[in-house]
């Protein structure tokens, strides 16, 4: 197993570099880069005749010819545009920019946001609590509910319980997350009915003045609706996957043999079937966790006024804030690759019969 882990770790760096090359290349063909974004802001504001400070720089722009006339109506001077390109690093060839970026990332130097006076690491750490809350709780709740429910549905396959629970989870899967979030706000956040939960935010304004128990309760109070809205669509996939896995295993010969020996049904299900049936469920855990943690919370964050990684990535893409885009992409890609290795380790832990050493990858 050690050799396999070393091979997987050795593939992390070239895979990550490949991801970055593809995305960096695609970005070169996207119109409206950071320089164009900054120029559009300046021309829209019309505040360049006396001086300008943008993207955290101390650069000042003097009017052409020494006059104090407004320059927006005449366009920006080429010297100013060249200075912007130099500040953003676009005065160098793309290959040189990419190599410098990767060298900085390998040293965990992710630079500073183009349009905010804050480093990318500090910006990500600032937004991380929201994404951790949504991703962690949504994944845990989905697995804690779906696995027992799927097992129960498999045991009572074809019963009335199986029928109505299937209808309920499929209906939940069919409801878009943003629509369910709005429904929760209308019903339970003071929309038209009850005001049980807060409308926005992760904590109350007086959170720092609360006791430890009060802080925990206040946090759970705020996160309840966003987590429910994020989790609702996950139940169907995990529940039906668990049910079908159990049904496939129950029909196999070793289960019939165990029952013929007189083992209790609970011992058969959880001592023999569970270990084999859970393999495919665990295989999907990294994708579920990483997807919920980083990618699927944009709409939920917007509806509940939460400032997390979802909104950060969207705003960075719109503003062409390349350090934020590529920095978060590098970190998320690295986490995804490492989680994939951890998933294989979980395979071996649950079923020691699996031996990845025999694989040629």
UniProtKB/TrEMBL annotation:
Keyword Cell membrane: yes
Subcellular location: Cell membrane
InterPro entries: MetI-like, MetI-like_sf
Residue intervals of the ABC transmembrane type-1 domain: 128-347
Pfam families cross-referenced by the UniProt entry: BPD_transp_1
PROSITE patterns per the UniProt record, alphabetical: ABC_TM1 (PS50928)
Membrane topology: Multi-pass membrane protein
Coiled-coil ranges (or none): none
Keywords: Cell membrane, Membrane, Transmembrane, Transmembrane helix, Transport
Transmembrane segments: 9-30, 132-151, 163-189, 219-242, 277-304, 324-350
Family named by the database record: Belongs to the binding-protein-dependent transport system permease family.
Protein name, per record: Microcin C ABC transporter permease YejB
């Amino acid at each position: 197993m050690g050799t396999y882990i070393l091979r997987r770790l050795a593939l992390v760096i070239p895979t990550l570099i490949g991801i970055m090359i593809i995305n960096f290349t695609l970005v070169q063909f996207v119109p409206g880069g950071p320089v164009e974004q900054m120029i559009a802001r300046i021309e829209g504001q019309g505040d360049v005749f006396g001086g300008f400070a943008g993207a955290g720089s101390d650069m000042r722009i003097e009017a052409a010819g020494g006059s104090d006339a407004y320059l927006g109506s005449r366009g920006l001077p080429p010297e100013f545009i060249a200075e912007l390109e130099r500040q953003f690093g676009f005065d160098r060839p793309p290959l040189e920019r990419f190599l410098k970026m990767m060298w900085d990332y390998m040293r965990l130097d992710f630079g500073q946001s183009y349009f905010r006076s804050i480093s990318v690491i500090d910006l990500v750490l600032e937004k991380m609590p929201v994404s951790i809350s949504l991703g962690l709780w949504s994944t845990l709740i989905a697995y804690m509910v779906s696995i027992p429910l799927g097992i129960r549905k498999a045991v009572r396959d074809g019963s009335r319980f199986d029928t109505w629970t299937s209808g309920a989870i499929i209906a939940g899967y069919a409801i878009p997350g943003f629509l369910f979030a709005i429904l929760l706000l209308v019903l339970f956040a003071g929309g038209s009915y009850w005001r049980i939960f807060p409308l926005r935010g992760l904590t109350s304004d007086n959170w720092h003045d609360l006791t430890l128990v009060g802080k925990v309760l206040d946090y759970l109070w705020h996160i309840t609706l966003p987590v429910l809205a994020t989790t609702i669509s996950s139940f169907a996939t995990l529940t039906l996957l668990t049910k079908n896995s159990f049904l496939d295993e129950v029909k196999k010969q070793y289960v019939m043999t165990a029952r013929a020996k007189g083992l209790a049904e609970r011992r058969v299900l959880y001592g023999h079937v569970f270990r084999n049936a859970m393999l495919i469920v665990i295989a999907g855990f990294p994708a579920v966790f990483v997807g919920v943690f980083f990618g699927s919370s944009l709409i939920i964050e917007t509806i509940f006024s939460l400032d997390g990684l979802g909104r950060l990535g969207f705003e960075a893409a719109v503003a062409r804030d390349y350090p934020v885009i590529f920095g978060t992409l590098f970190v998320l890609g690295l986490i995804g690759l490492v989680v994939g290795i951890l998933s294989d380790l979980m395979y071996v832990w649950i079923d020691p019969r699996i031996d990845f050493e025999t694989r040629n990858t």
